[in-house]
């Protein structure tokens, strides 16, 4: 009885505060700030949080506080149950309309659009966001633009999605809204990933992670950004880093119940485990992806989960099972599904499954749908142009038909005249041909002489360029002797080495037969001997050339020469301290239209560490030259240092 008495006299606020876990940290109407917004003032998003808001918001004393709590309740339910989220959103809309509060009506519409988006009602979401834009404040616009970007992304209009992400970023920077900036970076990262520009995607994803971590709150969008960064690492084949980001995302998602993010991450982990040939783990991940998609009752997640399962079964050679899984994926994607990106993947994978099962007719049909969807996603801007070209083509065809008929009539009339004139023209042609042959002989002799003169002049130019570069090098040497600052002297010496590497290219051009290409093995031999002599390490450090004779054009040879010069110089300076001995290996090979360059040493393995990347001029120069050659650089520091490059080599004909 005493306990009942105590329960009766305790104020209602205290009952609420103690009725749910963590309530005292979130809602207390006796405080000056009665409501701590989750992921803003607190990260307490436990299992009871939504129940707490549902019970507490009707007791709020002001409409503003009531609307704020109800909107959070509606928005955060969409991570767990879309129908429940829409229920509370509709309550908020009705209350705001009844109170004639246009601002909060617009904010509830943004939440409503976020839910409709995940219910695959893309056009409705876009319409409601357009209505909300005229009702909310300017500081609400970044989040509104983010949702509009999501809609256009789902509709396959990646260019418009990027426009809204950039608008959100611009407003975030103007208002110094770090969360808006982080969201915009995250969205751009995801869009770059969809466009297969994974390095750009990774760059923006890491920027977003840094801003989120500066804010210090592990919210829904930070969790999603970890997933996006993992996706970019996955496509860049950095599997360990991808796994780390996926695991981090899962830890947050499971802690807070972010079912949508959990389904996303497990879908990607299916791909990751498949790449690693760990099919058992991939199957477990697929089951988890499906589980969370079903909990959320989200068709988009269900479709992608079955797609991931179909991909896995394809890799395992289980084509019949893959076909069934992919049919389920496609069946979930209704006519207004909108996302041609993932739907195209489903049809592509289905085509592969049919082909693997020798159902070639069905495979052809699936690939045809895939091609159509892919064109819509990645060449949307070209649709109007293609239609215009088709119209122009039809008109041209009709004009050609008319012209052809007129030509036939004219030919019939002129046929006899042409036959008579043919013999005369033939004789005239033979006469002109004879005279042309005589003139060609004279011209050929003249051209041969001119070519010899031009070749001589070109060699002389290369000779003079080489001499001028050596003069510049000598001037730098003289200037260095007058300078006592070691950093400046080092910089000038490095510049001498770079100039010398270019000078050697011009020296080979005037010494060898070809004026347009360089034989790289002999060039590297001369360059390495020069660097060994400059640093005085003969007999202590050996440079080995692991390559066949390869000829490269000048525009490619000079940047590669500068890259090798930088790396050899670094090895001489840092890889073998205290008079240590060792070797440096330079390897270059050409496969098809790709060049593979690798410079490795067996030194102490600390020439460049991760903290130093991008800080020195030499490193910046190597990265700049790598981008100039449309290449990629990979650094491995283990039992020495190895830097490898992949370049696209499209030599002009």
TrEMBL record:
Q: Which reaction does it catalyse?
A: ATP + protein L-histidine = ADP + protein N-phospho-L-histidine
Where does the sequence pass through the membrane? 418-437
Can you say what this protein is called?
histidine kinase
Look up and give the organism this protein is from: Maribacter aquimaris
Q: Name one Pfam family in it.
A: HisKA_2
The record ties this protein, via InterPro entries, to: HATPase_C_sf (IPR036890), HATPase_dom (IPR003594), His_kinase_dom (IPR005467), Sig_transdc_His_kin_sub2_dim/P (IPR011495), TPR-like_helical_dom_sf (IPR011990), TPR_rpt (IPR019734)
Keyword Repeat (UniProt): no
Which top EC class is named for this enzyme in its record?
transferase
């Amino acid at each position: 009885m005493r306990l009942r008495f105590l329960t009766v006299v305790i104020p209602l606020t205290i009952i609420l505060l103690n009725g749910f876990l963590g309530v005292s940290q979130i809602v207390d109407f006796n405080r000056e700030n009665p409501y701590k917004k989750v992921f803003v003032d607190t990260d307490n998003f436990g299992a009871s949080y939504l129940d707490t808001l549902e019970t507490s918001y009707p007791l709020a004393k002001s409409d503003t506080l009531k609307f704020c709590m109800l909107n959070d309740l509606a928005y955060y339910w969409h991570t767990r149950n879309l129908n429940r989220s829409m229920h509370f959103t509709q309550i908020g809309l009705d209350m705001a309309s009844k109170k004639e509060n246009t601002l909060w009506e617009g904010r509830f519409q943004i939440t409503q659009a976020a839910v409709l988006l995940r219910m695959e009602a893309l056009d409705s979401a876009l319409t409601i966001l357009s209505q909300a834009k005229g009702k909310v404040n300017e500081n609400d616009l970044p989040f509104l633009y983010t949702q509009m970007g999501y809609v256009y992304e789902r509709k396959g209009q990646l260019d418009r999605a990027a426009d809204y992400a950039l608008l959100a970023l611009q407003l975030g920077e103007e208002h110094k809204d770090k969360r808006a900036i982080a969201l915009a970076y995250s969205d751009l990262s995801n869009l770059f990933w969809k466009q297969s520009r994974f390095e750009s995607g990774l760059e923006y994803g890491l920027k977003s992670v840094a801003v989120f971590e500066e804010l210090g709150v592990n919210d829904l969008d930070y969790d999603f950004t970890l997933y996006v960064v993992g996706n970019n690492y996955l496509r860049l084949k950095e599997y360990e880093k991808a796994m780390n980001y996926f695991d981090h995302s899962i830890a947050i998602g499971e802690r807070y119940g972010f079912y949508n993010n959990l389904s996303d991450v497990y879908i990607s982990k299916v791909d990751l485990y498949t790449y690693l040939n760990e099919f058992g783990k991939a199957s477990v991940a697929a089951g988890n992806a499906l589980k969370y998609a079903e909990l959320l009752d989200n068709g988009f997640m269900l479709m992608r989960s079955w797609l991931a399962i179909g991909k896995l079964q394809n890799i395992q050679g289980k084509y019949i099972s893959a076909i069934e899984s992919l049919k389920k994926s496609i069946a979930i994607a209704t006519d207004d599904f909108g996302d041609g990106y993932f739907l195209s993947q489903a049809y592509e994978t289905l085509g592969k499954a049919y082909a693997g099962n020798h159902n070639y007719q069905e495979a052809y049909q699936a690939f045809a749908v895939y091609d159509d969807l892919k064109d819509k996603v990645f060449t949307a801007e070209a649709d109007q142009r293609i239609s215009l070209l088709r119209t122009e083509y039809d008109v041209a065809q009709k004009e050609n038909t008319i012209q052809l008929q007129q030509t036939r009539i004219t030919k019939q009339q002129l046929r006899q005249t042409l036959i008579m004139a043919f013999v005369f023209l033939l004789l005239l042609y033979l006469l002109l041909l004879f005279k042309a042959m005589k003139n060609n002989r004279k011209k050929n002799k003249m051209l041969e002489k001119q070519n010899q003169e031009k070749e001589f002049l070109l060699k002389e130019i290369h000779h003079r360029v080489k001499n001028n570069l050596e003069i510049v090098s000598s001037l730098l040497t003289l200037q260095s002797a007058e300078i006592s600052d070691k950093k400046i002297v080092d910089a000038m010496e490095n510049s001498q080495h770079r100039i010398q590497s270019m000078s050697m290219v011009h020296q080979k051009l005037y010494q060898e037969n070809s004026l347009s290409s360089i034989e790289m093995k002999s060039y590297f031999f001369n360059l390495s001997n020069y660097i060994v002599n400059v640093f005085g390490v003969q007999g202590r450090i050996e440079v080995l050339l692991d390559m066949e004779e390869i000829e490269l054009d000048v525009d490619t040879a000079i940047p590669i020469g500068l890259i090798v010069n930088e790396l050899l110089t670094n090895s001489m300076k840092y890889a073998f301290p205290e008079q240590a001995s060792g070797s440096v290996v330079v390897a270059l090979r050409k496969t098809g239209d790709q060049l593979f360059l690798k410079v490795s040493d067996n030194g102490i393995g600390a020439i460049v560490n991760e903290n130093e990347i991008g800080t020195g001029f030499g490193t910046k120069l190597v990265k700049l030259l790598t981008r100039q050659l449309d290449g990629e650089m990979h650094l491995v520091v283990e039992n020495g240092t190895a830097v490898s490059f992949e370049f696209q080599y499209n030599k002009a004909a």
